[in-house]
Design goal:
Largest sheet of chain A: 7 strands, mixed
CATH class of the domain at 379-441 and 592-744 in chain A: Alpha Beta
Shape of chain A: globular
Protein name (chain A): Xanthine dehydrogenase YagR molybdenum-binding subunit
Largest interface: A-B, 37 and 36 residues
CATH topology of the domain at 231-333 in chain B: Enolase-like, domain 1
Structural class of chain A: alpha+beta
Radius of gyration of chain A: 27 Å
Domain Aldehyde oxidase/xanthine dehydrogenase a/b hammerhead (chain A): 24-137
Helix content of chain A: 10-25%
Number of helices of chain A: 17
Biased composition (Basic and acidic residues) (chain A): 152-161
CATH class of the domain at 231-333 in chain B: Alpha Beta
Number of strands of chain A: 27
Distance between the termini of chain B: 49 Å
Number of strands of chain B: 12
Keywords (chain A): Molybdenum, Oxidoreductase
Strand content of chain B: 15-25%
Oligomer: heterodimer
Region (Disordered) (chain A): 139-161
CATH superfamily of the domain at 231-333 in chain B: CO dehydrogenase flavoprotein, C-terminal domain
Chain lengths: 750, 335
């Protein structure tokens, strides 16, 4: 593959091109869209989590001021399911269309929807719909391991050697269960859908991390051809995975618009965000590690179980990283699902890897303690030479350097291993660390690049910017290839009618769009060269394409600076407004027999302060070193990692969705009672990118960042908590009560 | 939210008269005064509060903070939390109040929230907020869902089998330690109620939280002159570093003589009681004794003597003790 080693724009810290729009409030988010005659929809949410609807009375609600309609199972009209698919298409987590039957399987399931002239009227009407239920006892039980699975036995996810025998024979062993509670995505932008139906075509303004998939799913569920659906997501107030796939509210909005022939806006409330748009599932993981006396791993076993909903199978994939992170001759990863009366879980930042690494890296810390070995040394000792799960080489792996650079930046050499032995300013310090990894991949992407007579360029791709900086990085790639300055590149994203682009997930947008945008830029350049050699009045008329080159936004004879003509001038001479090119990227994701193992790596170091006299624990400092290929734009990249670290503080210390076992309601369903990290909880964060290009993934060597920053953080923190307090918390989040009266923990409800 | 009528009161008697039409001044009131709106509007959106009339009192002349003739301080009911927290006299002589206010909410909320509104702040019990669940405070007779439910944040002192909801205010804990007096104008004229007598424990009527009757308008509070040389501290413990209600908090006012003997003491707690909780037991254990960490711990034990933990909040007993002990130590050592 080509290798771009030098560039004037790639790797240069570049401010977000969409920044001014955002800070001035002129960036149009989904719920900002407004149309003449727009109506508002408000769903009626079930107040039980298991049972059936006995009676639904809409008569009172229908007569309320401003109410246009109240829809329920009998009058919503036809909605379809998507057909089963084997490829990476037609994806949604909750496959049952809303209002399909009268069975309630989770709290907050939509049972009706009120439509009115104002949002207040719609909400009042929805609250006035009288629903009675045949209520059955719900199951939101938090204990997962050891409860009945959806399958006869757990799935074997990865296997090598004889793990059982190696565990049996081990000199040193760790065997522990780690738990992660339900965590709820809380992007500040609520899920929203504004549906416009013109009698034939649907235009859907959505909060979507995947506009093309969203269009395909909606077309199937509405029963119309894909060309009759257009999905638009110009900007996202983040999503953290919660907005990857369509959720029932979007279909409700579209069905209401269809039925009424008027635009309909539906904004999901914060409370509903805890019920019907996904969450990271509760997960139990048993980890068994065995090592010889020198700390060389002899066996690794991970058995995880995550909860899923009553109808759909969501697998968290906690074993994704385990098979290749360390060298071990014997390894077994199994996974299973249990059904609970909860809304469907979905991907949350770093799905699988983040919870998996919390367990694995906690266990590695426990193993280091059992071995009386430094935890960094333990990891260095078990560094693999190749991906042992597939027996293929790593594309580019610098884990050892992440660990050594992180150690140095953090000052790890000064760590004394005894519990509570380190002090500063009257505070007890805890120092902990963890290794981390996240997949790297390309998925199929198309892009078009246009070069215009006014000297600007336009790049279009049916992906979207979740807030991570895609607009800017795409402009940089075009600028790099064409020489047109970043601020003259118009980036058009977030529209399903554009050439299909990647979902904003997997941290793979950068890696996927890079080859497509480079190729599209090159092809646009070829079209320009054609104009230069064919057009009357062009100084290059009659030359052969191979005689010319494009350098710094000009066309010139190869190697000759003199006589260079700006590209825009060529277009003026040719009397052409623009030339364009398209480019494609192929997919590495899910390849049957990959030749190399593509992943990003990192090391997380955390310092906590502990004041036992008032049971106060704070995270004071985090050093994170990331090996994620070449960083195309250090500013948003750093922002991604810093944000992930803050999210990791929340995951480690605060976040937990509590279900009331009697009703099955996620009871702390607001931003006061579901505690996330605030500014005052943000530690000092030191981010280092190693910046080794991964040229096997694309010509720029970019892998992308986002999810990797959250991987490992929670375990680095709980390992630090152990170092400070002597309390090993295996059940997130770390609560004051765990440290105050460890034997007495009682926060779990069921 | 239900439809309501908004009226503006031009005078205090007009406000009193308007609210007096309500059958109660407690939970379920048909007429409500509205000032900062930071609490009431939330609950109206959730259909927990369903007044049919709001009386806007923001135009009444009740936002002054002024010294009283006897050396105390008068704080108008409409004085904003941010203004009170930054008032020079409050910071200098009633530091515990300034600290408590600044430990609560966010700057934006403190800019709107008023002294009188904070005095009447509603509980954050999740079941009180959720009309799909039973709650005796919101709907008498519907049962207490918090008992046996999610009660980690809830009270361990002053509870009953009908309600274990915590009073969430920080301000009110400080007012308890400062012997504040609540001044009320009602249909029968003006009266003054010591803050310690202003709140009632839930008992069998958790819908009733204060001594307020229909028509009663809190016009101001007064703080008595502090004993010369007294020091005060507010300490708040919670999961995250900011913007969260207390798991346990302590307001301490202390004065020691030259030998270190405690000659004046007030101890109040937040986050653990169904009302802002003053501990006479702790004060008794401290008064006349030499300040020491052992004495403080003994007093803290006394303060939590009658604590009744629920299924999830047993840790609050020890947390509150540490909070009190540490706050007493801080107060006794503060300059």
């Amino acid at each position: 593959m080509d290798q771009v080693t030098e560039s004037k724009v790639i790797g240069v810290a570049t401010p977000r091109i969409d920044g001014p729009l955002k800070v001035s409030g002129s960036a149009m988010y989904a719920s900002d869209h407004h149309f003449p005659g727009l109506l508002y929809a408000w769903p009626v949410c079930a107040t039980i989590s298991n049972g059936t609807i006995a009676h639904l009375d809409t008569a009172g609600a229908e007569k309320m001021p401003g109410v246009v309609a109240v829809y329920h199972r009998e009058n919503i009209g036809k909605l379809y399911r998507v057909p089963p698919s084997t490829g990476f298409t037609l994806i949604l987590d909750e496959k049952r269309p809303p209002l399909e039957d009268d069975t309630i399987r989770y709290y907050g399931q939509y049972v009706a929807v009120a439509v009115a002239q104002t949002v207040e009227q719609a909400r009042a009407a929805a609250e006035s719909v009288k629903v009675t239920y045949n209520k059955e006892k719900p199951d939101t039980g938090e204990k997962l391991l050891g409860t009945p699975l959806t399958t006869d036995k757990p799935d074997e996810k990865s296997k090598r050697g004889d793990t059982a025998a190696a565990l049996q024979a081990a000199k040193v062993k760790v065997d522990a269960v780690y738990r992660i509670p339900v965590e709820t995505h809380n992007p500040i932008e609520l899920h929203a859908s504004v549906a416009v139906f013109d009698g034939k075509k649907y235009t859907l303004y959505e909060t979507s991390q995947a506009v093309v998939n969203h269009r395909d799913v909606m077309a199937q569920m509405l029963g119309v051809p894909t060309e009759q659906v257009q999905v638009i997501t110009r900007f996202l107030g983040s999503g953290f995975g919660g907005k990857l796939w369509p959720w029932p509210h979007g279909l409700l909005a579209a069905a209401c618009a269809r039925n009424l022939g008027r635009p309909v806006k539906l904004v999901v409330s914060r409370q509903m965000m805890f019920e019907s748009v996904g969450h990271r599932p509760a997960i139990d993981q048993r980890i068994q590690l065995a090592a010889d006396a020198d700390g060389k791993l002899t066996a690794v076993q991970q058995d995880y179980v995550n909860h899923t909903s009553m109808l759909d199978d969501y697998n968290e994939g906690c074993g994704e990283i385990t098979p290749f992170l360390y060298s071990t001759p014997n390894l077994l990863v199994t996974g299973g699902l249990v059904r609970r009366n909860v809304g469907n879980p979905t991907a949350m930042r770093g799905p699988g890897a983040v919870p998996g690494l919390f367990a694995l890296e906690s266990a590695m810390d426990e193993l280091a303690i059992a071995l009386k070995m430094d935890p960094v040394q333990l990891r260095l000792k078990n560094e693999p030479a190749l991906d042992e799960s597939l027996n293929i080489p790593f594309s580019s792996r610098h884990m050892k350097e992440c660990l050594t650079v992180g150690s140095e930046k953090f000052g790890w050499a000064k760590r004394t291993p005894e519990i509570g032995s380190m002090k500063r300013d009257g505070l007890t310090l805890g120092w902990g660390m963890a290794a981390c990894s996240w997949l790297a991949a390309r998925i199929e992407t198309e892009a078009t690049v246009e070069l215009l007579q006014d000297g600007s360029a336009r790049v279009a791709c049916g992906t979207q910017d979740i807030g991570g900086g895609t607009y800017t990085v795409m402009a940089q790639v075009v600028s790099h290839e064409t020489g047109i300055p970043v601020n003259r590149v118009d980036v058009v994203l977030g529209d399903s009618s554009l050439p299909p682009g990647p979902i904003s997930g997997g941290s793979w947008v950068t890696a996927s769009m890079t080859p497509a945008v480079l190729a599209a830029s090159q092809n646009a350049g070829k079209a320009l060269v054609l104009a230069a050699i064919k057009s009357d009045g062009s100084p290059f008329k009659g030359k052969k394409p191979e005689d010319l080159e494009l350098v710094d936004g000009t066309v010139r004879l190869k190697g000759q600076q003199q006589g260079a003509v700006p590209m825009a001038e060529i277009l003026r001479i040719a009397k052409v407004n623009s030339v364009s090119g398209t480019g494609k990227s192929d997919s590495t994701f899910g390849a049957a027999k990959p030749k190399v193992s593509f992943h990003s790596y990192g090391a997380q170091f955390a310092e906590v302060t502990w004041q036992p006299e008032i049971a106060r624990l704070r995270v004071s400092r985090v050093v994170t070193v990331i090996d994620a290929g070449r960083i195309l734009n250090p500013r948003p990249a750093r922002n991604q990692i810093e944000g992930a670290v803050v999210m990791g503080v929340g995951m480690a210390l605060f976040e937990e969705t509590m279900y009331d076992p009697r009703s099955g309601a996620p009871i702390n369903n607001n931003l006061a009672d579901y505690v996330v990290a605030v500014n005052a909880d943000t530690p000092e964060i030191d981010v280092t990118f190693l910046d080794y290009p991964d040229y096997q993934l694309n010509a720029l060597g970019a892998r992308g960042v986002g999810e990797i920053g959250l991987a490992g953080i929670a375990s680095a923190i709980t390992n630090a908590v152990y170092h400070a307090t002597g309390v090993r918390v295996r059940d997130l989040p770390v609560r004051i009560e765990d440290l105050l009266v460890p034997a007495n923990r009682t926060t779990h409800l069921a | 939210m239900e439809l309501f009528e908004l009226v503006t009161a031009q005078t205090i008697p007009e406000a009193v008269k308007a609210q007096a039409k309500s059958s109660t001044a407690q939970n379920g009131a048909e007429v409500r005064f509205i000032a900062g709106g930071t609490n009431l509007i939330d609950y109206m959106k959730l259909n927990v509060e369903r007044p049919n009339r709001l009386v806007d009192i923001n135009g009444l002349p009740l936002d002054q903070i002024e010294k009283t003739a006897d050396g105390g301080l008068k704080i108008g009911a409409l004085a904003r939390n941010a203004d009170v927290a930054q008032d020079a006299t409050v910071k200098e002589q009633y530091a515990v109040l300034s600290q408590a206010l600044l430990a609560g909410a966010s700057p934006q909320l403190r800019n709107m929230a008023t002294t009188g509104g904070n005095l009447l702040q509603k509980t954050r019990c999740v079941y009180y907020r959720d009309t799909a669940t039973g709650c005796n405070k919101r709907e008498p007779g519907s049962g207490c869902s918090a008992i046996g439910g999610y009660n980690r944040m809830l009270a361990i002192l002053g509870t009953s089998e009908h309600c274990i909801a915590t009073n969430p205010s920080d301000q009110n804990v400080a007012l308890m330690a400062l012997d504040a007096v609540v001044h009320i104008e009602g249909v029968k004229g003006q009266r003054a109620v010591p803050v310690a007598e202003f709140y009632v424990v839930p008992g069998a009527t958790p819908q009733r939280e204060t001594v307020l009757e229909p028509g009663d308008l809190v016009t101001h509070i007064t703080l008595p002159k502090m004993p010369a040389g007294a020091k005060s501290v507010y300490l708040k413990l919670r999961d995250r570093a900011s913007y969260e209600f207390a798991l346990a908090s302590a307001a301490i006012v202390i004065k020691q003589d030259a030998s270190g003997k405690i000659e004046f003491i007030r101890v109040a707690m937040g986050g653990v009681g169904t009302k802002p909780w003053r501990s006479l037991e702790a004060e008794k254990a401290l008064l006349g004794r030499a300040a020491s960490s052992a004495t403080f711990r003994t007093a803290a034990e006394a303060a939590l003597h009658g604590a009744k933990p629920q299924s999830q909040n047993g840790f609050k007993v020890e947390l509150a003790k540490r909070c009190l002990t540490h706050a007493m130590g801080q107060a006794s050592q503060s300059a």
